[in-house]
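User: I'm preparing a small set of examples for a lab meeting where we compare how different chains pack in three dimensions. I only have the primary sequence for this one, and I'd like the structure in token form so I can line it up with the others. Please keep the answer compact; I'll paste it straight into my notes.
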Amino acid sequence: MKIKLFYNYTLANLYICLFMLFSPFLFVACNDMHDTDNPAELPDTGNDWGRMFVLCEGLFNYNNSKLACIDYDVHTLYPDFFKEVGKNNRDLGDTANDMKLFNNQLWIVVNISSQIEVIDASTGKSIRQIPMFGEENGTKTARQPRNIVFHQDKAYVCSFDGTVSRIDTKTFEVEATVLCGRNPDGITVANNKLYVSNSGGLDATAGNGLYYDNTVSVIDIESFQHIKKIEVGINPHHIVADSEGDVYVVSRGNNANIKAILHRINSNTDELAESFPDLSAVNLTIHNDTAYMYNFDYEHETYWIKTFDCGSEKVVSEQFISDGTTLKKPFGIYVHPFTGDVFLSDARNYMEDGDVFCFSKEGKLRYTIEQIGLNPNTFVFSDK
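Assistant: Understood. Below is the structure token output for the 384-residue chain.
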């Protein structure tokens, strides 16, 4: 079952250029909600509850990132939760790349705007904007934050300027910043350490003679000091940890003669433990020590979605989708923390609003929400 929402967006070829840099060719309903301009009824979602937030990054340099909210309790979709429900009287920002839930707050990383937007997940109201800027030769420079992770009461943000920042979640102040590698693209926590994937993606296309980075930085959380770098494949991006402390990182290759590859790092020894040359994943998530991953081949317009057991280090399913459902361009993947349902976003052609597909853990389509927003990339579930 499907529902469609239509918007008019200005097309921009510039976004495709940015995307190519970083791809293998790259619950309480608030009364204000019912006063929004364009909520929409959901398809049949069964007995689902709570809210699913979907971050849509929009187009590079167009300031049109949006936060959609699927409210299962009132069976309603709010395509612009931040502006219309939260009534913040401004847009979310330019190119929102990541989002996490912490203490019923949505922390959204807005890359080009160089801000962390902290939002009350119940009301949609902005709590704080945290500017992410540095200084070079007396000039204020945008750090361009990329991804965020939490450990205890601190938030850790990696930024394209080669830094990781520690933010106090009570005061919303940046406490400290440490250098890592070039253009870090992902961050995760394992064994009381931060693991940061250094892509070098901006350098590789800047014409300055530098190539992609191929390292994962290890940062000790207690001292907040950089410990070492671990070499992996070129252009590393998504990085996640399983329950045993193994860290999985996707290296996306160079869009030409070097393909994407999955690696496993042992967080006890901080050494590369294993590489999987037959798993050219470009994105993954881990749920109950099962990794759900996908690849998209831009040259041939083909993709696969696989499941992988992090205990045996073996592929469980060569094709997760079992009922013949097809996507155009997979763009994000997430597993519901309670039901095990798998959410996949489809960016279509990156220039029109993308779709959300919800599959059972057996790989059968439960429902689709079409045109939820432009380039939906991240999901977060809240049961409050």
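A couple of notes for your slides: The radius of gyration is 20 Å. The domain at 13-382 is CATH 2.130.10.10 (Methylamine Dehydrogenase; Chain H).

User: Perfect, thanks.
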